[in-house]
Amino acid sequence: QVQLVESGGGLAQAGGSLRLSCAASRTIFSVNTMGWYRQAPGKQRELVAHISRGGIIFYVDSAKGRFTISRDSAKNTVYLQMNSLKPEDTGIYYCNKVPAFAWEDWGQGTQVTVSS
User: Fold this and answer.
1) What span, in angstroms and rounded, lies between the C-alpha atoms of 110 and 10?
2) Cα separation of 36 and 27, whole Å?
């Protein structure tokens, strides 16, 4: 059974930082590229960053230079360090394998709200 438990979201001011964590079941973590997705209000879920098992990393342009994704294989956990936060970073953040589709298992997500 796939388990994805996101945490670490909250309310931050613009320019602030948050660190998101995602505890994943070993069945999904150990064989997949893992990523963080964001669903902003009124928008579709989008992939923000991902990291392969070998450590190859991708960021969308809006995250480059501000976000850092990492993974801890011993803990089956993926992290997203978010610095220099902007109001447009607001949304619900989910982690999952890459790619992941709407009909697949998702966690509850963690809400990030950035005030200006």
Assistant:
1) 8
2) 18
